[in-house]
Amino acid sequence: MTRHNKYEEFTDDAKQQIQDYINLKIELIRIDVQMATARTVSYLFSGILIAFFLFMVVLFISLVGGFYLSEKLHNYTYGFGIVGACYVIVFIVLLILRKSVVERKIADTVVSLIHRDHD
Questions:
Q1: Mean pLDDT of the chain, nearest integer
Q2: d(CA 17, CA 90)
Q3: With the CA atoms of 75, 79, 81 and 85 taken in that order, what torsion angle do they form, in degrees rounded to the nearest 10?
Q4: Domain ranges of the chain
Q5: What is the pLDDT of residue 119?
Q6: pTM of the predicted model, to two decimals?
Q7: For the chain, how far is it from start to end, CA to CA, in angstroms?
Q8: Does residue 110 or residue 47 have the better pLDDT?
């Protein structure tokens, strides 16, 4: 009878350890998901903030350039037209290079962020 009790005690202890292990794994996964979510949100927020300030800098530089060229050419249409043409050229270059440069760079950045989260 004592052997039977020892066996029951062993199996009960093993079941409890397995349940504890599973609960700890679930908690670890939950914490990992929370950390990954927090990192993602912080990256998105900081990226949006940086993009906004970069947009403001480009906007004001464009206005300054447009007014400068307008003053030199004595024509607002030509001054701001040249600035607009520069943006059209940049847009066309980015459109042509989007697969080979832009999309690859973004994909590499995302993959490196994912692997950095796992380290």
A1: 87
A2: 62
A3: 150
A4: 2-118
A5: 52
A6: 0.64
A7: 51
A8: 47
Query: If you ran DSSP here, which 8-state letter would residue 98 be given?
Result: I
Amino acid at 58: V
Backbone angles phi, psi at 35, to 5 degrees: -65, -40
Alpha-carbon distances, residue 54 vs 32, 60, 61, 65 (angstroms): 32, 10, 10, 16
Q: Percentage helix, strand, coil, to 5, in the chain?
A: 95, 0, 5
Rounded Cα distance between 118 and 50, Å, is 25
CB atoms < 10 A from the CB of 38, how many? Answer: 10
Q: What are the tens digits of pLDDT across the range 14-59?
A: 889 999 999 999 999 999 888 888 888 888 899 899 999 999 999 9
